[in-house]
Design a protein that fits this description.
The structure is a homodimer of 457-residue chains.
Chain A lengths: L15 H20 L3 E2 L5 E3 H4 L4 H7 L2 E3 L10 H5 L2 H8 E5 L4 H10 L8 E10 L11 E10 L5 H16 L5 E7 H10 L6 H8 L2 H4 L1 H10 L4 H11 L5 H8 L7 H19 L7 E3 L13 E7 L8 E6 L13 E6 L1 H10 L13 E3 L4 H16 L4 E3 L6 H10 L4 E4 L2 H6 L2 E5 L5 E4 L1 H11 L1
Parallel strand pairs in A: 1-5, 7-8, 12-13, 12-14
Antiparallel strand pairs in A: 2-4, 3-4, 5-6, 6-11, 7-9, 9-10, 10-11, 14-15, 15-16
Helix pairs in contact in A: 1-7, 1-15, 7-14, 8-14
């Protein structure tokens, strides 16, 4: 009895072509992480629900994938538990859930391994996460996150390095049409104070954050609804009109937040981050100070930044910020950290749309050897073993077949070279090497072949 | 409110040191896979239970981790469903499960992507799997599998290449104390016929497979219980006493299975596999023909092999075989395949016990630059940017601290070099580079430093 197989909604298979492209992105990021001294860790996909629940807000709790206890999972339940409904029953039949992000597991990791960890701890982590979100274009239920964080120091050098790393990653991917929006959560507090909105700080920020989407006018209407006065809106309008280079902008902002200790610290932190970048000889050209930036309000406490493509409608492809109390909930207070997260799927879509993936992501000197019959096969096996002993990626077509079929196989597999081993070649010990892209063919002895292919990689 | 965090039973965190060691194993395997022309695929961790259930036997079904449907998962159930018990209710509240191995998802992948796949398809896949097994030493609920398979050809070249790959992997890991046991499922059929056990083929094999554990005598007692006669046991005993080199062994076995077409084909397939290895110039020294080998009875149909360390009590670290009907259950008949699977955790334990991990798994020229105060920090940042621009892995200690603390940090992080940048060095522009392992120190200009470090990698 056979069945028609299917995939769960929001999940994907990756074919070799896509894996090579995704690995190109991941390895580029990984190389930069390592170059800056970040070390990898891994945490399990399965976490106890006690670790995950309550960390992502009510909506996040809804979106956690929960795993049924194994065995007779009903044995600790009673009909009343069933009658009490899904939410109640979950607590009785499920103890584990799937990783929802990499931050909470990292916080748990730090709390549990505090005695072994070498602080300041620079870690990176590249693993899948799961969210029971409604699947839609570009949003999946299983997707990779790619994070780097430094915990255990307040140094703004970390903020500067994370931004430098992002720029180095995009350089490595030959992608340059992006903007880095930079601000500080503390500046928002200063602005809220200046606009008489300190009491409704969250509502103020959430509304302000919508400027790009709904426009300034409608944002101002909403702000009046939450209690801002005309004079507050005038102040806000003045702040929004600040223009100039980074230095100018910060100088113009300063008088607006002079009554806010937090606001002044925020400006100083942005300034110091920019100074670190300068000392590191890293360009700040792509950085735009955006004082209305309000991402991650519930956890970020200092510098915040996000990166978006400028020539594509794509949303944020990289973002991060500083949080002052990562591990407090797990019993380890006063651990400050700052992080960055790369969105692999959106970066993939960006490179794809802009045609920025290199054509050949496999090795350049991969060879397919033809197989016509038992006699030539046996000869071809010797050639194959010579190539492999030299470390060259080579394979023999596993059964006798027509040349056309084998060439088509090589073409579809994106193998750049085909080596013809027929009766004539066997005798002359000179083999025809066909370059698949150009169609060019040359006759070579095994020694010449090895030399040519080794020179290529 | 803080909580004491914990990990689910049978799951693990991996610290940087362990990740580097595991990646050393995985990358060694991956490099060999790619060198032999295998391409990577990835499948989701979440699979529909309709795909997973019934593929691993009753015990396997029990060990599947099942994921609760999201939202109000009880809304399609009635109190009777609750009353009917866990097994029944599962079907109503859970549609998805976690990947249990890589073979079934691969079969699903092949069936679903049959039109895009370039057959013969050589794929590898390295991903975690989950089993609700009782955790014990060396057995986890979440662990990695590392598989390579060729589907769409009957060529025994594939079998030979998989064995060659395994040997190349262990060469790459500098591990050489292992044995490759090789046989063919069809030979077992021939032996069963010779011993009058064809009717109880499965029981016969399962019993025979216990020889290593319980000894020949007890196995014979059990075989009598399932109906073998004294003369059958004599035949079996004669077969078990076959000795000599590969050629001798096969020649001595041949008369015993002359009445079995399958048995004769099995012998021929083993012979051809060995011949392919010889033509590939691959040593067959570590290969032992073991006609009682009975692994994977329910799915393997041809060549079977397994690799075990010879100097450690470790069990199988690599195994595989040919199966003739991988994708039939998913509506794609007649796809023959052959595969290999590496057990990362056991390989890890093996290398660990034998002290075979290289000491330095990070780059050799990683430098930590000291940070003593704001002035030297600013100078150090320039040195840092020069090193990084040359592609050298370098980091600045992120805040001012005592030298001792910074050296200890470098030591614990396994950073091989520390570059001292103090007031004096700032003036002379000659910096002291300390080699952490030897304690040696040398004074160098930035140019000399770059040259030295670049020459190292």
């Amino acid at each position: 009895m056979s069945q028609k197989p299917s995939l769960p909604k929001g999940t994907r298979d990756f074919t070799p072509k896509v894996v090579f492209q995704r690995n190109y992105i991941i390895q580029t990021i990984q190389k930069v992480f390592q170059k800056y001294g970040f070390d990898p860790i891994e945490t399990p996909a399965l976490e106890n629900l006690s670790v995950l629940t309550g960390k992502y807000g009510d909506e996040g709790d809804q979106l956690l994938f929960k795993v049924l206890n194994s065995g007779d999972f009903l044995n600790k339940t009673a009909p009343e538990d069933y009658a009490a409904g899904s939410a109640h029953l979950t607590g009785k039949i499920s103890e584990k859930g799937l990783r929802y992000d990499l931050t909470v597991p990292f916080a748990r990791f730090v709390a549990m391994n505090r005695n072994e960890i070498n602080f300041p701890f620079k870690r990176y982590q590249i693993q899948p996460v799961w969210r029971a979100d409604r699947p839609q274009k570009g949003r999946y239920r299983e997707f990779y996150q790619c994070d780097a964080d430094v915990v255990g120091t307040h140094s703004l050098l970390c903020e500067a390095e994370l931004i430098a790393m992002a720029q180095e990653v995009y350089d490595g991917l030959s992608f340059r049409d992006y903007q880095v929006s930079l601000s500080n959560r503390k500046i928002l507090e200063g602005i809220a104070l200046a606009c008489g909105a300190s009491d409704q700080f969250n509502a103020f920020c959430v509304t302000l954050d919508k400027i790009d989407k709904i426009g300034r006018e409608r944002v101002f209407e909403e702000l009046i609804k939450i209690g801002l006065k005309e004079s507050d809106l005038q102040t806000l309008s003045d702040i929004l009109h600040i223009e100039g280079d980074h230095h100018d902008k910060l100088n113009q902002l300063r008088p607006f937040v002079m009554d806010s200790t937090q606001g002044k610290v925020g400006i100083e932190e942005v300034e110091n981050t920019l100074n670190y970048l300068k000392s590191l000889d890293v360009s700040t050209e792509k950085i735009v100070l955006d004082f209305t930036l309000a991402r991650g309000l519930t956890y970020y406490t200092g510098i915040i930044y996000e990166i978006k493509p400028t020539t594509l409608q794509m949303g944020t492809i990289t973002a991060g910020g500083r949080y002052d109390n990562l591990t407090g909930v797990f019993g380890l207070p006063d651990v400050s950290g700052v992080g960055i997260s790369f969105g692999i799927d959106r970066i993939y879509d960006t490179l794809n749309e802009l045609n920025l993936f290199p054509k050949q992501l496999k090795v350049e000197n991969h060879v397919l050897i033809t197989n016509f019959d038992a006699t030539t096969e046996n000869h071809a096996l010797h050639v194959l073993s010579v190539l492999r002993n030299e470390g060259i990626t080579a394979e023999l077509y596993p059964e006798a077949a027509k040349l056309k079929k084998q060439l088509s196989f090589a073409h579809r597999k994106n193998i750049p070279y085909v080596l013809m081993v027929g009766t004539e070649e066997m005798k002359s010990k000179e083999y025809s090497l066909k370059h698949m892209e150009t169609g060019e063919q040359q006759r070579l002895s095994v020694d010449q072949l090895v030399k040519l292919l080794l020179a290529m990689n």
